[in-house]
Amino acid sequence: MAKTEEDNGLDLRGSTEKLTDNGTGLEVNGGLTPGDTPVDRYGFTGGAQQFSGHSAEVIPIEVLRQREAKWLEMLNSWDKWMAKKHKKVKERCQKGIPPSLRGRAWLYLTGGKVKREQNQGKFEELDSLPGDPKWVDIIERDLHRQFPFHEMFAARGGHGQQDLFRVLKAYTLHRPEEGYCQAQAPIAAVLLMHMPAEDAFWVLVQICEKYLPGYYSTGLEAIQLDGQILYALLRRVSPVAHRHLKKHKLEPILYMTEWFMCAFSRTLPWASVLRVWDMFLCEGVKILFRVGLVLLKCMLGSQEKLKTCQGLYETMELLRAIQPQYMQESFLVHEIIELPVSEKDIEKEHNAQLRRWKESHGDLHCKSPPRMHGAKAIMTAEPPSRQDLRQRPTIIVESPLADKTDGETADDAKDSRKTKEEKQENTILPPQESINPYPPLSDPSPLLKHMTVQGSKESLSSAEHDTYL
What we know:
Number of strands: 2
Distance between the termini: 38 Å
Order of helices and strands: EHHHHHHHEHHHHHHHHHHHHHHHHH
Largest sheet: 2 strands, antiparallel
Oligomer: single chain
């Protein structure tokens, strides 16, 4: 069930090395020296998820600016857009949220913004408490394992690891009956790359309680159920892959646990991770199912591909090393959008698998709340007030879209036509390698460099420094 790799392993229940056994202060994680290694556009200095030109799309700067203006307009009237133009919000998430607004968009999509406003002072209260020593000890041991090649988490005891500790500790106090599961750490780390600690905490709460309820509880019953749902859906999507896994008795829990529990954050190239998360936080868990089904179909979906994996061990090795062309951003996103797996399909199969579970195992030990399928479902279940959605600080933008009463622009129509043309042109073959318009930086910015090396103990709060906008 658990997989452990050097410097980047996933062992769901603890590890053997503690963060600061000798109390010597800051250390460099994984042998990295901040400032000595070029940093890519996402903050990585190395590792499998570092940026490479062939793994990501190239977006012209003019298009990016147009998208930013559209997203700013949506965020300023979020309730109206979600109520009346949710389809357009979904389409824009599928195109990719602009990097400068991704953290704020995720906060709004998940309902984390509303939770934060309705629970002002809660995170500070939890942050000030010492925490359960059992969970504190395990969390400390896990900190250095989270994205050791990212500049934010490279320094042991640096600001990134400190904020990660704060968020995870706060969650164990918020849900003491659930405690801490190691797969929550990469989820929280991804969030911290895009937002302050308090915002990351509330988005983590929403993911654990609304998007993936029961995933991180003792016994991992929810993830086992979803593994069976994935397996059943695979029969329809790729009969060849399904027969192969059935023939070799390869249980879903062996290959999909890390995929789903970490929302593919430890599996895909970083450009693809961000696009998957944009869609996942908008549309819900069906996106994770679609990603898993696409990867299984691409790796095991033909007799020709199965010639090299004639047994259980060979198949597991193949699924541990997904071929890069199947994880490439534009190819993967296209396949995810085109795959016909809906919330209805997942819920139907969920009910069927739940009946089978009860027949073989009895009632579930962990009673999880019902799963919410994305941002629309969350907002419908818990309608926010305008006050809860008010942006702080208020953003006033001279939007080029201001004179458009319906929120649509010529660019939207152009994008729509472009999308249709792309759908007709795209095939199973991934696109050709493209040139990276953002060459790696020779050195991190002075601010980030200072914060990493010196290990500032203060997190940038959303009220003081809105650095992720």
